[in-house]
Amino acid sequence: MTVTLAHRKVAARLLDALVSGGATPVDADVLQPAETLLDLYGESIRHRAYVTNDPVKGEQMLRPDFTVPVVQMHMNGGGEPARYAYAGEVFRKQLAGAERPNEFLQVGYEVFDGSDPAAADAEAFTTIRDLLKPLELRATVGDIGILRAAISGLNTTERRKAALERHIWRPRRFRALLDRFGGRAAQPEGRQALVSVLAQTGPDAMIAEAGPVQGVRGPEEIAARLEALREDVEAAPIPDTQVQVLEDILRLREIAPMALERLRDLAVDLPALGPALDRMEARLAALAERDVDIGALEFDGTYGRASLEYYDGFVFGLYALRRPHLPPVASGGRYDALTTVLGQGRAIPAVGGIIRAGLVADLEGTL
Amino acid sequence: MTLKLGVPSKGRLMEKTFDWFGARGVQLSRTGSDREYAAAVQGVEDVSLVLLSAGEIPRELAAGRIHMGVTGTDLVHEKIADWRSKIVRIEEMGFGQADLVLAVPKSWVDVETLDDLDAVAAQFRRNHGFRLRIATKYHNLIHAHLRAYGVADYQLVDSQGATEGTVANRTAEAIADITSTGETLRANHLKVLSGVPVLRSQATLFASRMADWGETEKAALQELGSVMGRDMTEGVIHD
């Protein structure tokens, strides 16, 4: 059994506690339309979530998480501010040999409140941490917003910034792009030659000579990309000091107050970090106000990049000290951008997190 | 019981498989009328031939319903998750070579590499409001390849045949398919992205770890190996 009665009891108890704390209980269908999730997460979700087919509704997915349906429900008429809690199964395919369940219980808490983002971040974190206090978990925090601020402050073209921002969640590709834009890796082979031909003949002749234009992508789109390539070949490399700042952020692993101090030093070379660091400082203050020992809180500059795909600000995870190989017992973060995508332009500041009830039950069993 | 050897039931692949075994002292042949799927083996004891569609041989190997089989590397990699735990590669047979490649319209003079494809995918989505479509039947291999490289904002659309025509028909922007000479791609005004192919495939003799290897089958495998001059038991039979 992947989900046991003991797991269900823990999930029910955690949900009750969240609701007693003032959250509105909500539920979501197990079958979710695949299209929305595919558009958000890309093709990879097909290999993480179970896809099934309905003759009338089309492709459906067994709920891989609650966040998307809860955001959709909130955007279709929830009042503001709002706090929601839920508990239920989510389904994820696992790789062969991975000893993780493909069906498990998630208990979640989501805060839609834009009045004081730092306080909302702290509330999401401490609400979840307080529920799990007896388990003595270790907390790691990060902030994707700092990375985004660093990228936006680089002295380079908007296109390069957009490319880096788009690949924050794909560390290997991000690295390759940064090496190229920083002049550490060579331009792709043939790029210089292509731009020379472009300068001589112009885009229309180049395209016409190559072959008949077919398909949806038209000649004006090809010409626009050629122009972008020309711009990129001519653009100066991102200054070394700024590449160094990005690398230092990604390598940063410190207790939170020290991390902030270190980031303030880095902001001397990249002043655009300032507002994001002010937000981090306000968040740490809000956490301290809620009895978090921020001197014991670990900050990891790269946290949230690999696993938590839609988070774009504060991120956190709580881990079992005695069982370091387990996935986080709880994790969460801020996902303002997700609400922008789902709300077709209308954004609602949102932060939340989930608890793996099965892990809590297992850990409580060994206390 | 006998050792069941699955080979493709039709065409060049079957003939070349027969030739390959024949050159190594094992005569495979069809029996009965040329429409009857019956076959015989001479040169080794206790081996029976099963004629199957090449596309079904990976599944039969993984299920252990045949002990050995001849099929393309591409099909085993695509169709069997974690194939190494179920199937052992005995030998590449040197025919049926084909590469799994990604191809885009020749008119895309701005696209040569996966890097370009990724950049185009991002812009395409902004321009058209949907993710760039890649037509293929190799969903698993292509997804793994694109993920390893960090390509985003694409979607795979299923195409079980005539894949090269999907771009002109405006049902896909790019394709991923098996090609040996590139003739069909060129005829449809497509070009292959530079760099190594997603997979180099060829006809390969495989053995199943999932099949029931009784005393007779083990003996048959050893005899097959000694007639053909190579050990075939490694990784297949323990003890």
Summarize the structure in words.
The complex is a heterodimer of chains A (367) and B (239). With 367 residues, chain A is of the alpha+beta class. Chain A has helices at residues 5-20, 34-41, 67-75, 117-131, 144-152, 158-166, 171-181, 191-201, 203-210, 219-234, 240-251, 256-266, 274-289, 336-342, 357-365; strands spanning 24-25, 31-33, 51-54, 58-62, 82-91, 103-112, 137-143, 253-255, 298-300, 314-320, 330-334, 350-356. Chain A folds into two domains: 5-26 and 63-150 and 244-365, BirA Bifunctional Protein, domain 2 (2-Layer Sandwich); 185-236, no CATH class. Chain A contains 15 helices and twelve strands. In chain A, a hairpin with a 3-residue loop joins strand 3 (51-54) and strand 4 (58-62). The two termini of chain A are 22 Å apart. In chain A, 40% of the residues are buried. Chain B has 239 residues and is an alpha/beta fold. Chain B folds into two domains: 3-96 and 203-228, D-Maltodextrin-Binding Protein, domain 2, CATH 3.40.190; 98-200, 3-Layer(aba) Sandwich (D-Maltodextrin-Binding Protein, domain 2). Helices cover 30% and strands 29% of the residues of chain B. In chain B, helix 5 links the parallel strand 8 (132-136) and strand 9 (154-158). Chain B starts with a strand and ends in an 11-residue tail after the last helix. Chains A and B meet through helix 6, helix 7, helix 9 and helix 10 of A and helix 4, helix 5 and strand 9 of B.
Total beta strands of chain A: 12
Q: Find the structural class of chain A using helix and strand composition.
A: alpha+beta
Number of separate structural domains of chain B: 2
Q: Write the CATH homologous superfamily of the largest domain in chain A.
A: Bira Bifunctional Protein, Domain 2
CATH architecture label name of the largest domain in chain A: 2-Layer Sandwich
Distance between the termini of chain B: 20 Å
Largest sheet of chain B: 6 strands, mixed
Percent of residues in helices of chain A comes to 40-55%
